[in-house]
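Re: folding output
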Amino acid sequence: MHSHGATNVLLCYDYVRVICKQEWNYWPLIPIEARMASRIFQFAKLPQMATPVLDPVEVGIEREPGDTPRVGVIYNPRSHGNKGADFDCGMSPQVFIAKPGDRSQLPEALAEFASQGIDLLVINGGDGTVRDVLTSGASIFGDNWPALAVLPKGKTNALTVDLGVPKGWSLQEAIDAFEAGSRVRRRPIEITPIGSRPEARVLGFILGAGAFTTATTAGQSAHKLGAFNSMAVAAAIVMGVAQWFFASRENAWRRGSKMTIGLGVKDVPMEHSGVGDPEWRQLLFASTLQELPAGMKPFGKILEGLKLAVTDQISRRSALTLIKMMRGETPDGIREKGFHQLSTSQFSLRIDDSFILDGEAFPPGEYRIGQGPELEFVAP
């Protein structure tokens, strides 16, 4: 267990302010027995919209051309690439580094950054850390986010693949790129419960269900063997294809999950090929990213917006078609075989099983999935 005392404020180097705690905890989880069985973190519910401890204020700080940007850094010490490493915070009086030990402390750190009028928010961690920061920051920054940069320090770093950020990208390189680098605009997936208070929501970039949940669990085994990022994705694909070839329909990889998908604001039921049980889908994968790890291209030629790749309970002989589609090919007659690729403004998901968002599991239920605010990311 970790302590939950007040956030400590330390001087790390002259005027660099560091908000520190021991480690990175989690929003309420289901009982530990279930977590151990799933081998991935399982949230009991979607997080509530953050209520900042510090009220964000309008900061009248105008940055003149050539001035050093004001930078806020969220550092997750539990991220895979940060374990056992101390973060170098001897940077500049314009750099503020927060090391929250608990997700509940993220709003306080982000509100403090907002009050400082930061120009650049740097997220030091993996995809899960990015999800947590975006979710907590949504009620603080609204549609007025600073520019963002991501240092790829997690077990998975799909967002940085899309942004073209190299492994080992440093804080100083991210700060330099604020002026001299490129800018990439992306809108995260925004998930809210249907029929619940609007305060509950979560933002991220990669959503999956059905066999994707099984593959994510398998990916944890790959992590234990030392495979991360694209290697872990490739290992999960290999395991999945093997299961599709040799397992029965009752196998989790082939069975998928019982789910209903409604498309657009009118919630039009998504068509089903008739292959397998029409109440079940073997796989659902959604993202707003354009480039994915391991060269995967599950959406075919669709690049923009919220994209969906869905399979019904496909036959064994269709597994080769799936491999081709993951490489970006679109064979003839894929819908008749149980494959669907499309883009939509939003969709609903009613599911009897857990789903995955950026590497961690969220509970069964009825959800509306759309797009969050447009964010500007700094890239090399």
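--- second protein (sequence, then structure) ---
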Amino acid sequence: MNTLLKDVFGVFKFAEGLYAGIRKLLVPPKAYSWQTFIYLSVFSWVLSYFATGYIKDIIAFFGWLFLIAGTAWYTTQDPLRVPGTFMPVGAVITGFLVSVFAFGNQQDVITPRTIVFWPTISALITAIPEFIEGNDTDAKARIPKPEDRQRIIILVASSMLLSCWIQFYFVMDNWSQQYPSLQADTFKRSTFVARTEEQVKIPKNGVVILEKLQPIVVEQIAETPWSEVEKWLLDAKQRVGNLGREVIEKNLGKYEEKVLWRIEPRVANTKSGYILDLLSIWIGPSSNPRGYYLKKSCRIEPVAAANNSGNKITVAEIECDRASKLIPGSPPPQQ
């Protein structure tokens, strides 16, 4: 019986201690405390939910300020340091909130700039108290001691370097999305880029251009009177160039690299007709000083056919390669 009573009292004592801990955390000991700022931020966000227009933005703005102030106050009461530095974990949390507040938006709360500036802002928040002495009611600016200056400079500089590397990652990621043809190149001589996945053997966008251009050219040439085809081939540079620009704008419109592709034809005589080479030329950066281009060849030959009146005429027959060929170096000169 005594053991049962002890267990019951132990449970009540645990519950009482848990309640006291929660009450201490949630109930501010005085009006001027970190809990007050947190409650003000929650109250501001609730009000902003029901507000409209610029009033909504103003209330939300103060909600962010209260949240940042309350979080900074709470996390600096008993600071836990980031291993190997004198930066409090609270400064990292506060720096994140400041970065989200400064560079986030309603559509994307966390943006690339939020992540990029986070380390630097956290370092500056850590350094600011080193230039202030005194308490909350009597504070004044001061110059840190020489040994403190050194560690402040090292911390801020290291954080700025980390921000630069994070920004470099986002730049490279953006390049890979806007200029996917760069992935077909080699980075063996690069000192800061290492390929972690299988290399793309042929640039996809260059292939797309030729695959979309080929049926348009075939449609304009196939079963066309031979005399008109020869006139078409004499003006092939302008015709294919115009068609190529339309294809690029339609199929590569979402990529910034669209301006780095140029479409040109090459026409050569054969014993029985002509060879029309459709070239998709990359004029962007390349590890090969002479660049590269893709080629799809079409053979054009005259064949006999009958018109609507039953008379025999000579028309063009065209057959193109199934696959595009990647050729390193400059394209051949136009004849």
